[in-house]
Amino acid sequence: MQAKIDAFMEEVKARDAHEPEFLQAVQEVAETVIPYIASNEIYNGKNILLRMVEPERAIMFRVSWVDDKGEIHVNRGYRIQMNSAIGPYKGGLRFHPSVNLSILKFLAFEQVFKNSLTTLPMGGGKGGSDFDPKGKSDDEIMRFCHSFMSELFRHIGPNTDVPAGDIGVGAREIGFLFGMYRKLRNEFTGVLTGKGLSWGGSEIRPEATGYGTVYFAENMLKTKGGSFKGKTITVSGSGNVAQYATEKAIQLGAKVVTLSDSSGYIYDADGIDEDKLNFVMKLKNERRGRISEYTDTYPSAKFHKGKTPWEEKCEIALPCATQNELNGEDAKTLIGNGCICVSEGANMPCTSEAVAAFHKAKIFFAPGKASNAGGVATSGLEMTQNSLRFKWTRQEVDDKLQQIMNDIHEKCVEYGTEDDGYIDYVKGANIAGFVKVADAMLAQGVI
Ligand code: NDP
After folding, report:
1. pLDDT of residue 244
2. Which single residue of 41, 150, 202, 271 could bond 382 by disulfide (Cβ 3.0 to 4.6 Å)?
3. Residue 53 pLDDT level (bands cut at 50, 70, 90)
4. What's the pLDDT tens digit per position in 309-362?
5. pLDDT value at position 83?
6. Ligand 1 centroid, distance to 345 Cα (angstroms)
7. With pLDDT > 70 as the criterion, what percentage of the chain qualifies?
8. Strands of the sheet with 57-66, listed across from one edge
9. Predicted confidence band at 137 (pLDDT cuts at 50, 70, 90)?
10. Which positions are catalytic?
11. Residue located nearest, by CA, to atom 7 of ligand 1
12. How far is residue 259's CA from residue 242's CA, in Å, rounded to a whole number?
């Protein structure tokens, strides 16, 4: 079997040798899905996985914009339309200087499996730009977003491709992007999700990824009679996902002791309560400040410059910042400190070595494509509400989100339970995500 996996990876590497993040994501899927294909006659000999690793379309474009001093800048824009076998392409836009083809292809590939797991009819895509929103004025952000959409608009649409936010793309950016789309197309449709509540957005969408990550972790703990109550939690990041994962963990009775950004992490031994979290939300979402400023207001907390939170003792770790932020050494430290559960809020935050260590120690580990699927699932609910020109209440959307996270958890248990009873959520998520897309591709023929 290993020879088959190696041969497949050689073929992918021959084409995409310079895309390390993409290869990492494909390898992880290949290791669990290729054995499944081999033991299931209908998928055999159809080269389905090889077809799935090739984007249906990859669009790259110039984004020129003018800063407040009148200087002209050029960034690169992307949209990867990975797979639309089960529905329109769906996936976020990321604005960050690290954005490149490899990162967006890994994200788009993961998105195909994630969207399939949500049970909603959504294909997978991802996009963004190497534009850095940090330190830019609102006017500069607006000009950039308008320029970005002045090309992207011809490739997307409510039945074709529906982007959303991701790192560096929040409510402000979605507003500017939607405004330009609406002007160019002269139509008001649900072409983007994460919209403001007064113009087509869904309740709970901002909260959904973080809440869903916690709901999923709670489901894992429940399989052994556990819960969040009284547990100590480390969270990384301090953006959208981290903020709402923290909020839900607090609501469930846990103590969250860390938050971070790219400059380091803060440790608050007393726990980050609702008031402190409100302070962080204002700091990050309105003042656009740094997490180190937390200690100015709460001096008993400590800021650890240039470090990640994984050296702190916790029972549950929620990596919610970015890819490959938790490595094999971090995983060993967490396990040594008594961590029993890791639920990925970010996409691929744990390296392959870290995941292997969690599996070896047989602790709960949820891959992002399962545990952070609540965001895109609620985007799917936003699309439904837009099509129906209807609005569900906060409670209705939260109930649906919880039900979807329960369903994803059950699917992972169905496909990922090992002979000794350990649940391999990576295997479960990969196979469950694969089956739905593969069946659709088989039914639609070689296209
Ligand atoms: P935000 O932009 O709101 O926040 C990102 C956070 O991660 C910030 O605190 C940022 O710090 C930190 N961060 C970014 N890059 C790095 C880095 N290289 N090293 C350390 N910290 C870093 O993004 P989101 O919260 O929306 O996204 C976070 C993760 O969750 C991403 O992996 C995203 O793909 C994933 N995700 C998001 C979904 C959503 O609905 N928003 C849905 C599913 C997954 P700084 O400000 O210093 O850059």
Report:
1. 98
2. 202
3. very high
4. 999 999 999 999 999 999 999 999 999 999 999 999 999 999 999 999 999 999
5. 98
6. 9
7. 100
8. 57-66, 72-83, 124-129, 89-95, 161-164
9. very high
10. 126
11. 321
12. 8
pLDDT at 258: 98
Query: How far, rounded to the nearest angstrom, does the alpha carbon of residue 262 sit from its chain's CA centroid?
Result: 17
Residue 349 Cα: closest atom of ligand 1: 32
| Ligand 1 atom nearest residue 373's Cα | 43
Protein residue whose Cα sits closest to atom 2 of ligand 1: 167
Query: Separation of 38 CA from ligand 1 center, angstroms?
Result: 37
Crossing angle of the two packed helices 205-222 and 374-388, in degrees rounded to 10? 130
| Atom 37 in ligand 1: residue holding the nearest Cα | 166
* Torsion angle defined by CA atoms of residues 160, 395, 227 and 116, in that order, rounded to the nearest 10 degrees: -20
Q: How far is CA 108 from CA 59, 101, 172, in A?
A: 13, 10, 23
State the distance from the centre of ligand 1 to the C-alpha of 107, rounded, in angstroms.
13
Out of 167, 193, 265, mutate this one to test ligand 1's pocket (max ligand atoms within 8 Å of CB): namely 167
Res 359: pLDDT: 98
Give residue 150's pLDDT.
98
Ligand 1 atom at shortest distance from the alpha carbon of 237: 9
Give 26-39 pLDDT, tens digit per residue. Answer: 999 999 999 999 99
The pLDDT value given to residue 188: 95
Q: Is the dihedral of CA 439, 445, 446, 447 positive or negative?
A: negative
Give me ligand 1 centre to Cα 421, in Å.
34
